[in-house]
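hey can u run this one w/ manganese (II) ion bound, need the structure tokens asap thx
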Amino acid sequence: MRRKHLVAIVVVIFLTWNFLMYYMLVSKNPGKLGSISVEDQLKILQGDIRHQLSHNSELLQHLQELDRKIHQTTTPVPYDANRFILPILLIACDRTTVSRSLDLLIKYRPNKNKFPIIVSQDCGHKPTADVIQRYVMEHDIKHIKHPNISDIHLPWPQKKFQGYYKLSRHYRWALNQVFHTFNHSAVVIVEDDLDISPDFYEYFSATFPILHQDPSLWCVSAWNDNGKLDMVSDDAELLYRSDFFPGLGWMMEKSTWLEIGPKWPDAFWDDWMRHPDQRRGRACIRPEICRTSTFGKKGVSKGLFYEKHLKFIKLNSKFVPFTQKDLSYLLKDKYDTYFTKLVKDTPEVTVAEAMSGHRSNMKALKILYSTKDEYKSTAKKLGIMDDFKAGVPRVAYNGVVSFMYRGQRIYLSPPPGWKGYNIKWS
Ligand code: UD1
Ligand code: MN
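ok here u go:
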């Protein structure tokens, strides 16, 4: 009896609620609903439902991510080097010269089962698709196509950034494919205008265990932003930690994607990654001598950077058998102790002194900077990159930027007692 009552009450409340909602809608749009044809009303309703559905699926995805996060173990699972698979994701669009990147990726690949190549193509460009298809037949690579190549509608001031929006959307989709559809546990991402060095695979294979083991690392990159010929030593073995996310041929683990994928930005993904909200104090491993270089003169960022900077980058040509070396010095504790001491013990000079060559007998020199302008002016004089992203100078680790100047190692360093990066420096 009581149950029947309850049901009746719920039904009455439900009906009253529906009635009220209908009444409110009509009175909010006086005459509107009435004057719209049934067909239009249906269309509106369809639109609403579609919107709701997409909203729901977003929610569901978000829930699944959360669920995955909760069930992830906090201590990394030991990994088996022999069974480990490291896919290479090549981001392509409308440049048939993707064949140049693919040729090198295939040429240097030691094992096709261990390093499957996935080309993800945006832009729906048929000639490029045909080129990629040739590699599918001959080299057993995977060719996936971004299903959404629609234009992105942007208000006028942002319209010129359309390319950045499209490629960010493509990255999101492609990385979701790698981690959720193909279920890989890590990835190396390259773009369609990159050459690679002979030890590209060796480098990423050897650094993977370090990345996996050290929670203060979130990427390994093939790139040194100050990697021009006269700014690097010829020590191809030399590797560093960097607080600056370099991109341009880089590896991350699935756990990182689970964290950043759901909030992936609509544009400018690389600068977004450099923001403290994403980076959260984590570093990348980077080499002294680049393991990639770009031949993409005309890109989304319009090529200025290429002529001024990128075309001078030195690509490593020696094969370093990294997997046979002990790279544990890159783990945070060991590295911080060693690197701090190294910089501390290096004699300090002024920029003028360093440039004069009077101290050229020393192996390394240190120049201090305390302000943003000091940094910029010194960087300009010595020819290194002088910009900051989220307050971090390119290649910096704990504020220290290491490079070669006329055959001598220079550490451009903040003074002792450094308090961290200032996000306002730009
Ligand atoms: C620069 C960076 C690049 C970064 C991008 C986003 C350098 C040398 N390159 O791109 O690493 O990802 O900014 O901030 O600093 N692409 C699409 N869809 C498009 C257009 C391009 O997927 O609609 C792909 C291209 O195939 C390429 C990548 O996006 O793989 C970058 O495009 P590119 O034209 O080379 O732009 P950059 O200016 O080099
Ligand atoms: Mn490019």
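The chain has a mean pLDDT of 90. anyway lmk if its weird
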